[in-house]
User: What shape does this take?
Amino acid sequence: MGTDAAQTGHLTAAALAVLPALERWLEFTDVAAPARRRDAWRAALDVDLPEKGAGADATLAELADQVVANGLPIGAPRFTGFITTGPPTVPAVAQFAAALASPQRYAVSAFNLLEDVSLRWLAQLCGLDDQVAGVYSSGGSVANLLALGAARQYAFERHGIDVGRDGLPPGMPARIYASAEAHHTVQRSAAVLGLGRDGVRSVPVDAHQRIRTDVLTAMIEADVAGGAVPVAVVGVAGTTNTGAIDPLDTLADIAARHDTWLHVDGAYGLPAAGLGEMAARFDGMRRAQSWIVDPHKWLATGVGCAATYVRDPLLLHRCFTQTPAAYLAMPGRGPAASPFEEFGVHYDDMGVELSAPPRGVLVWAVLREIGREGLHDRVRRHIGYARRLTELAHRHPRLEALTEPELSVACVRYRPARPVPDPELDRLNEELLRRLWRTTGHLPTSTVVDGRFAIRPCFIGVRHSEADVDGLAERIVEVGDAVAAG
Ligand SMILES: *Cc1c(COP(=O)(O)O)cnc(C)c1O
Assistant: This one.
């Protein structure tokens, strides 16, 4: 027991030792329980490095009783925080299967093929044309980095500089333009790419939280006149705070006029672009040079899955290649007769990861199971939930909607019957949200809209129902009444 000798032959028994705990977890009966029990599982788990192994049975029992039972209820029907969700059964099992059947994405395997196939499906699902090339990475953070790396490569090659090889030239400050509501991974990408976080010009937004294109134009013109190199304009297709969609068609015009790259950050919102009724809001999207989408958001693949698409994958290669590595270099000859005679598409040279799990199988599993139609139904249902909550807030005398949702994020707050100034409303709603978490099982998070604190559910979980939406509105009023009464 407790050595590598015991590593074979008990997979089914091992899985069965944990599955009942997982089934119980997925009932989400008491989502605050792990936090309340924190001292107990901390004491059980935070122990010294074991000198001798406990063996498989004891480890799996502890996994079931102490770890699984005290997880994070992101997949719960009433969890609507941030923009994240848990996978349903099929992609979760696909992830488990991949861990065992193909721990890496490369070489000749069905998993490797599904990288290519699912990237094609995902592009079609999101309404991208078939001239794009994709690569998976761990999340929107890295996906944005890759896209902006390609943009940086493009911008400097136009000045005769291979920036991936030679680095940034002195005296040519590079700029990225993104709205104040854009995700701050854009700033981090700029830092990693050597532009610096302050190399991102933060463009103010209008009353709908969309980028001010007049200000953007003025900023680019001033920077160009001052000798800066515009690297990219970022259009957000679904902001993280409120789900706003930037005017992509106008951004495409501006980018074209300045011969600049347009990057669409659709980490959250891009799957909505394939919906007929949403098409007008994504107008101009195909005129961009790069896009990202996080299947671990609306597709609910399980976390660790994003895709970057570009028109010219060689830009990614020139930006991110690790240059030839001797231990990867064995070329195939003729039809592959062993798994390692062919590497497949060199995704490792189009990003920043060499070792990486197959992620295409997750996207494949979701789309194979429910199809484009099922995914579109999900997106439509979730947008409907955000509108429903907003509508309920409009109708209720003590609720207020702070946005009109474009996607599946709603921003609402409680307002007592007596008039209350904004700072006090902020404090009241903060306390309301804490009590909501502790006492109701509803788990939205918050944001700030035009300086006002908002309770901000994002509906992207596969398990939400309309009753959860109505329940959330009712609980906000009840808890708000209680907080307001003091
Ligand atoms: C979530 C999000 C990101 C970051 O993605 P991660 O997967 O969390 O790294 C970037 N941009 C937008 C618009 C997002 O919503």
Summary: The longest strand covers residues 229-236. Residues 262 and 289 are 6 Å apart (CA to CA).
